[in-house]
Design a protein that fits this description.
This protein is α/β, with parallel strands linked by helices. The chain has helices at residues 48-58, 92-109, 118-128, and strands at 19-25, 28-36, 43-44, 68-71, 76-87, 115-117, 132-142, 145-146, 150-152, 158-160, 168-173. It has 3 helices and 11 strands. The chain starts with 18 loop residues before the first strand and ends with a strand.
Length: 175
C-alpha cells in the first residue's frame, strides 16, 4: 500500500485477538476468536466495539465469494464434581493449592477450539499434582448441560464455574 519494501510497523496496543481458529461447517467458513482478560489471563469474548473493529479489519483479507462469519462468544462454563484421593503424608492445604494451580494450567494449555475430554483433565491432574493418587471427575456439565466423556465447545474455549474448587472431595490414603 505504501510502495515501501518493508511491512508497516505493528501497533501492539491494537492487537485484541489472543486465540483464533477457522472452521468449515457445511461449506460455510467461520472464524472463532477470543481476547484475553489482562487481570486473570482467562480467554474472554471480544467487546462489541472490539468485534466491530476486528470485523472491519478482517474484511480486507476475505477472498471474494468466500465470506467468513466471525464468532466471539463468552467461554463455555465447565462444572464438575470430583474426588481427589491423595497420599496422607502430603499436606492437604499445599495439595489443594497445587491442584488449583494445575487446573488453571490445564485450562491455559487447552487447545483453542479443541474438544474437551474429561479423561485428559483427570490424567493431567494425576500427573501434575504431587501426592495425588487419583482424581475422578463426574457429573460434568458445560453451560449446565450434562455430557459424558467429551464435548465440543461452541466458544472454542472454557472457563471453570467460579465454585469449582468447592466441588472437590478429598480422601487421604496411606501409601
Amino acid at each position: 500500500e505504501t510502495g515501501d519494501f518493508i511491512y508497516a510497523s505493528i501497533d501492539t496496543t491494537k492487537q485484541i485477538v489472543k486465540q483464533a481458529a477457522f472452521e468449515n461447517v457445511l461449506s460455510s467458513l467461520f472464524l472463532k476468536i477470543a481476547a484475553q482478560n489482562s487481570l486473570t489471563g482467562d480467554l474472554i469474548a471480544l467487546t462489541t466495539p472490539q468485534l466491530n473493529a476486528f470485523t472491519a479489519y478482517f474484511v480486507n483479507f476475505e477472498i471474494p465469494g468466500l465470506p467468513v462469519s466471525i464468532i466471539s462468544i463468552d467461554g463455555n462454563v465447565l462444572n464438575f464434581q470430583a474426588t481427589a484421593t491423595y497420599l496422607a503424608t502430603y499436606d492437604l492445604p499445599t495439595l489443594q493449592t497445587n491442584l488449583s494451580t494445575s487446573l488453571q494450567e490445564f485450562k491455559a494449555a487447552f487447545p483453542f477450539n479443541g474438544d474437551f475430554y474429561t479423561g485428559q483433565l483427570m490424567d493431567y491432574i494425576k500427573t501434575n499434582v504431587p501426592g495425588m493418587v487419583d482424581f475422578y471427575v463426574y457429573n460434568t456439565t458445560i453451560d449446565t448441560i450434562p455430557f459424558g466423556g467429551s464435548v465440543t465447545l461452541a466458544a472454542g474455549y472454557f472457563n471453570y464455574i467460579s465454585t469449582i474448587l468447592t466441588n472437590i472431595t478429598y480422601t487421604a490414603v496411606n501409601a
